[in-house]
Write a structure and sequence with these properties.
By secondary structure, this protein is mostly beta strands. The protein contains 1 helix and 12 strands. About 5% of the residues lie in helices and about 55% in strands. Keywords: Biotin.
């Protein structure tokens, strides 16, 4: 968590921001509204942490594949999945589509529950594809 501290006319304002990376000040605008009043516009860039950047490179966002209803979910967060393993099933107009893992990994999160109505491009399962090698 980062804290931004602004001191203006002796008044201290603290604002918390998500993220633990260093902050880089991008822009500050001060606009006078009267003898003592100011409007402050502050823009801050938060650099991604190296761990967050590394993790993003190893995530697979598995989408629904077609518009329909999720009728079965075969995995849960923490499950190790193999290549071609069925992750979930989408049903539409009496047709069912088994969506399989294209590569092995570990299920990081599920974004829907059984019975949810989804669009083809909705992300259903997030898989961490980094698997430590033994040996």
């Amino acid at each position: 968590m980062n804290t931004i501290v602004l001191i203006l006319n002796g008044n201290i304002r603290r604002h918390l921001m998500n993220g633990t990376a260093p902050l880089q000040l991008k822009m500050v605008n001060l606009t006078a509204l009267g003898s003592l009043a100011f409007v402050i516009s502050l823009s801050v860039l938060v650099a991604p942490s190296p761990l967050q950047d590394w993790e993003e490179k190893h995530l697979l966002y598995q989408r629904a594949g077609m518009k329909g209803q999720i009728v079965d979910i075969k995995v849960k967060p923490g499950d190790v999945v193999n290549k071609y393993q069925i992750l979930f099933t989408v049903s539409a107009m009496k047709m069912e589509l088994d969506v399989r893992a294209p590569i092995p990994g570990v299920v990081k999160e599920l974004s829907v529950a059984t019975g949810a109505h989804v669009n083809a491009d909705d992300v259903i399962v997030v898989i961490n594809t980094f698997l430590p090698r033994n040996g």
